[in-house]
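Late entry, evening session. Most of the bench is empty. Finally got around to the prediction I had been postponing all week. Sequence below, unchanged from the version circulated by S.P.
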Amino acid sequence: MTQKPSVLLMLSSAVLYGVCSCSMNFLNKFLLSSWAFNHPASMVLGQILVIMVLALKLLKLIGKINLVNYDIVTATSCGLLSVLFSANTIMALFALRGMNVPMYNAIRRCIPFASMVLGYMVFVKKPSPLVFISIMIVTAGTGLA
């Protein structure tokens, strides 16, 4: 049986996500505009590598990793998702280069709404009432901002 995480753990995770997300936006904007570094794909690759190394170091797994169970089936099942995620991140960096950080963050908050609409149109999948209300509140807040 899985134990439900504590409220403190959930709150600290949300705060950490917010701090990391916000700081990455400002760092990326600084690199793209102040240094005129126009290579978003390189930035994504560098950030992914740094995060992976730091996570492995934190978990004390560097030097102890065993990838025996990682086969071509697993790689192909994750491949399309990895490519789409990387493409999304690169396009977001191109968008960030052309606008200010607050506007970028506001527009980015509309992604769940677009995903919900596309999920309904493509997969005929309806979200739960709580998810629908949450997404509508975030989208309305974005419109208000």
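Two things to note before I forget:
The chain has a mean pLDDT of 80.
Residues 46 and 81 are 19 Å apart (CA to CA).
Will write this up properly tomorrow.
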